[in-house]
Amino acid sequence: MSVLDSLILRHQPLRIYNITEDSNLHRELECYAEGLTLLRQELGTMLTECFYATAESYGLENAERMWGRVRDDLSLQKRRQMLIDRSSFGYDDFTLQGIQKLMSFLGIDGIVYEYPMALRMVIDTKSKDYTQGQKNWIYAQLAALLPAHLEIDVLWGDFCFNDIENKNLTFDLMDAKGLIWSEIDVYEE
What is the mean pLDDT of residues 103-127? Predict the structure, then answer.
């Protein structure tokens, strides 16, 4: 039902006015209806933008600014999911699944290696396309959100511990050869 039809319908039971299409009251209601239609559209947009699951523009941008930075380089669905994950992150989410959720809302694709005896965690990212500013921001977010007693190492790019571990070389063997990380990654015996 249009706004104009709704206004006319609400006035008819009163039987005070004779509302015909050529009456002054009808023209006045048309004017009100135009303004109320704009208001209705804007309220609909605001309602859409208020929820992460339906937001499309300024709702996403405002929420992303609140949590960090605007991620307009990602798809709409990915941005929504990141915000939903961020909002659902709680004090009891410091399990492996919780850390993966943390990585999801920071926009990191990667693998988490836990070393509980050493109080250390290594996050191996799959992408090497991060700028230095993005790396700094991601590391700062991880440091702020993860427990303070953990040491966090973030590996950016193609480096992967699994590749090194699969070579079956001990650290002493690699260290004795005087190899640096980039050389260890491609070293073959």
Answer: 85
